[in-house]
Every structure is written in C-alpha cells, then in structure tokens.
Specification:
4-stranded mixed sheet; globular; 7 strands; 3-stranded antiparallel sheet
Length: about 160
Amino acid sequence: MVLSPEHPLVDALTTPTQKSAVEKYRESARKLNDAERQNDDRKKTGVDTGATATNPVSGEQIPVWIADYVLMGYGTGAIMAVPSGDERDFEFARAYNLPIVAIQMPPDEWFASNKIAPTTIAACGRRHMSARALHQLVEQKDFTRRQTFDERRNYVDQRLA
C-alpha cells in the first residue's frame, strides 16, 4: 500500500523508528511539483512508514509506504499497489525489492516447464515472485514505462524458455 507523502494519515501511521526517514522524504517530496512527480522517466522513490495494513483479499499484512508518484490531489492519495499489473507499481517494487504478487497465476506445470526453482517462488497463501528474483530474470533488459505489462511478461517468458 502506498500513500502520497502529503496524506493526512502519514503522521498517525509512521512508527517512531521511521519518523526521521519519513520526515526527510516528505521534505524532499515537497520540493517537487506534480508534473515532476508524474514524470515517467524519473526513478520511483519512497520510504517505508513502518506500519502495515491488512490486505482485504488475502488477509496478509502488507507494508505501508509513502511515495512521491502517488498524488494527494488525484483520487484519495492512497493506492493498493499491484506491481504485477501496473507499470509504476512494478518499477517501485523493483526499486525497493518488494514482493510482486502474481494476480494471474500460471499452473504448477508452467513453473516446472520453465525451470523456475521453488526457492524463487515463495508460498504465502499465494505464490509471489520477489522483485529481486524477477529482476534477475530480466537483468539484460531495462523496462520502460511505455512498455505494457504484457510486453514485460512476454519478455520474461522468452527468457525462461
């Protein structure tokens, strides 16, 4: 879950151990205007608040981050990040080695036929591939915002074949 740095819940959710890092990040985010923050060519940045939220679908505890690519003036200023389905969330998860949960799960045979080791896939009620493992699969290719998720998936599939 990612909140905009300006979100009113940030202060209440930030743990004491993360307070300094969150304040420093919020100060740097204040220096950027919305156009700069939405620039697709910018590296995605953020900081963990130390808080967790309950995923309403799986019941799992997930970290709550703040990131400047989430804008308070757009929607609620909070997103339930879906890195396997949204390019900005994908880039953010890769940058911070966050899990990339598969929202469409191939059958077990697909993993076996593509020689994906069980250690690459973690079982937490649902399988997910860590951003680090996915990055290892695509290290020769630098994805851009303009590529669709299907293009990225096809590239990974080709690499695994």
